[in-house]
Design goal:
Blueprint (H helix, E strand, L loop, with lengths): L6 E12 L2 E8 L6 E2 L2 E3 L6 H13 L1 E5 L5 E7 L2 E15 L11 E5 H7 L3 H16 L2
Parallel strand pairs: 1-7
Antiparallel strand pairs: 1-2, 1-4, 2-3, 2-8, 5-7, 6-7
Helix pairs in contact: 2-3
Amino acid sequence: MTGPGKRRQAAAIPYRITDRGPEVLLVTSTSSGKWILPKGNVDPGNTPSQTAGIEAFEEAGVVGVPWPEAVGEYDYEKESVPLRVEVFPLKVDQVLENWAESKVRQRRWASLAEAIRVVGEPGVQAVLGQFADWLRQKP
């Protein structure tokens, strides 16, 4: 799935279903303060899906089981390194008050429309749209 020269990353779309509809949990980037999805490098021995769960726990302070298959992927560059990010839905079972990166990140629940509006990365916006389609088709 990863093209030549692209480092693999995985991201989670932490979500919950409310009376108003689905909401996703966004976190701030530690470098820019922009709203993003929790993501990180896929370490040897971990699947991308497992990595998504780990990143959601560390960066957003949520616990849940990531879907085993990605709903989409996007490419971006960080410090001149090309990256390919596979994105996995993660239904949130528990929200922690204190978590590993709580001192360096903010988090916020947002409707899908709001999340698509506030994330600046076109690839993430596209994947959030794919996630909306996935939610509608989910059994």
